[in-house]
Amino acid sequence: MVHATSGFRGTRAGVTAGSAPRNETDSSAGESLPRIRVPYWCAKGHETRLVFVKLAEDQIPGQWDCPKCGLVAVREPGEATLERPDDEVFKSHLDYVKERRSSQDAEIVLTGALERLRARRVLSDELLGDT
Question: Is there a contact between 79 and 102 (Cβ–Cβ < 8 Å)?
Answer without folding.
Answer: no
